[in-house]
Backbone:
């Protein structure tokens, strides 16, 4: 049978170019305004970065950025395409090559080791070099690599981690852990022989490797508590019980260790927002046993948004006169794509963009370098000759000329959305394809959609942001950020510029002294 064209076209938002867009003056004026702004960038910001912020959209490939931009506009009842994300306003953009040392298409762990530790690594490993082999405990020792978070802490800066995933998930764990398997969340997920050989689980390393990380917020509560201990929020649900075989209560240990240090542990939004950041020096916030819920499904009473967590983090961290380093992960963009749930993924991206904007209001480009990037892309895309203003989750404006059925603009190359009905592709017009958890159709059936292998964007603003340009290896990112902040191995230029400044400041006094000597002689 064939599907009539009328219902397909009815899904298109009737938004076309406005009258002003029909006038060439509109486009010429916009372009000239952009040109004048670009000319101001010729005067480079070469200040030393007091603060560093890295926003990491997990799985936020360029198609996701574009689709999120359109969604952001459409949420404000605009056409969407002309909308600007906060990251779109960053003056410098580069591309990052995401491959791992043993993988053409990256996984988050190896990628995180690159953009946090400055060293490319094998997939599935965090905070270790490519000499370490996944799941082989005895390849850990001697192959550890340190992260920019540690470099910042050792330089006297405050440091923080904020994520919508578990705090011991792949991306955040590369900031503090050295582990040959990203899945060793607690000792309950480790092989007994690895534990006996002395390898540490990631949750334990969070509290032991880098003393006193100032701010830690995200999920992952169950990995901190003894096995079978009930969860404070879901006491009757066994899947949320503690997982630690060693019976340690890492939260209690943290509380005891930080007793006299203005430290606070919170597990819900009310507790978080009731804090006065001026009287908090250390914060541990674990808001879920596992990952935080998708933003579309978030309980506004109990779970903080990414923006709310970022605001509290910056308020605490910026009290340090030496500045701070903050890692922020919009981690569930990735999960939405893996599930084929594009609506969840894109709303996660829009929320991360909101957090980027809020952080921008709380900091200054004169002393804060902010970088936005992704660890890898996904097999996600959208197309189909959709007209201007087409709802991003809607149908393409025509039927397939092969099976005469409609299709959504958003499609996946592989994933769980593949479905055959009576030997034919499923008719999407019979489904609610704009529902939050709709799984977009995919070309190849997989229980979980995979990462994509193309380069990802790097957006940068603030001191030395111009150093992120062109196409770079992913491990270049922390080296640039460290250079901008004069931390880690990049401090020689800071000493030179500091010495030059001191010399120029002393020259007037020296000249006056020589003049006086001449007069006396």
Residues:
């Amino acid at each position: 049978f064939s599907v009539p064209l009328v219902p397909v076209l009815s899904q298109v938002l009737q938004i076309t170019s406005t009258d002003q867009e029909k006038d060439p003056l509109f486009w010429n004026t916009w372009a000239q305004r952009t040109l004048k702004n670009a000319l101001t960038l010729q005067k480079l910001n070469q200040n030393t970065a007091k603060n560093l912020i890295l926003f990491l959209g997990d799985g936020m490939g360029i198609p996701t950025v574009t689709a999120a931009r359109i969604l952001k506009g459409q949420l404000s009842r605009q056409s969407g395409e002309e909308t600007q994300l906060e990251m779109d306003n960053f003056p410098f953009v580069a591309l990052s090559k995401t491959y791992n040392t043993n993988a053409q298409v990256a996984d988050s762990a190896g990628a995180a080791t690159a953009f946090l530790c400055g060293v490319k690594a094998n997939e599935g490993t965090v905070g270790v070099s490519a000499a370490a082999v996944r799941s082989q405990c005895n390849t850990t020792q001697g192959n550890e690599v340190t992260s920019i978070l540690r470099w910042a802490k050792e330089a006297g800066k405050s440091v923080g981690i904020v994520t919508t995933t578990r705090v011991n998930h792949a991306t955040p764990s590369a900031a503090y852990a050295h582990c040959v398997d990203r899945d060793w969340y607690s000792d309950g997920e480790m092989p007994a022989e690895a534990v006996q050989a002395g390898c540490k689980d990631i949750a334990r390393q969070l509290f032991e490797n880098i003393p006193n990380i100032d701010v830690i917020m995200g999920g992952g509560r169950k990995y901190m508590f003894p096995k079978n201990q009930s969860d404070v929020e879901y006491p009757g649900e066994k899947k949320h019980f503690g997982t630690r075989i060693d019976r340690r209560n890492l939260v209690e240990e943290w509380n005891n260790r930080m007793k006299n240090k203005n430290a606070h542990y919170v597990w819900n939004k009310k507790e978080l927002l009731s804090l006065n950041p001026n009287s908090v020096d250390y914060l541990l916030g674990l808001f879920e046993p596992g990952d935080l819920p998708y933003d579309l499904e978030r309980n506004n009473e109990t779970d903080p948004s990414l923006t709310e967590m970022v605001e509290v983090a910056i308020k605490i961290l910026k009290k340090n006169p030496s500045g701070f380093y903050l890692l922020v992960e919009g981690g569930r963009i990735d999960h939405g794509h893996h599930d084929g749930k594009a609506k969840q993924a894109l709303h996660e991206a829009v929320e991360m963009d909101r957090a980027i904007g809020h952080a921008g209001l709380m900091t200054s480009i004169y002393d804060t370098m902010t970088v936005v990037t992704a660890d890898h892309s996904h097999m996600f895309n959208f197309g189909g000759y959709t007209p201007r203003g087409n709802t991003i989750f809607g149908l393409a404006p025509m039927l397939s000329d092969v099976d005469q059925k409609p299709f959504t603009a958003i499609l996946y190359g592989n994933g769980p959305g593949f479905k055959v009905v009576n030997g034919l592709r499923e008719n999407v017009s019979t489904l609610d394809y704009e529902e939050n958890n709709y799984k977009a159709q995919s070309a190849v059936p997989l229980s979980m959609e995979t990462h994509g292998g193309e380069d990802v964007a790097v957006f940068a603003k603030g001191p030395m942001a111009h150093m992120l340009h062109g196409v770079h290896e992913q491990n270049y990112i922390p080296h640039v950020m460290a250079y901008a902040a004069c931390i880690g191995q990049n401090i020689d230029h800071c000493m030179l510029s500091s010495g030059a400044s001191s010399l120029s400041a002393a020259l007037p006094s020296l000249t006056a002294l020589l003049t006086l000597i001449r007069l006396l002689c």
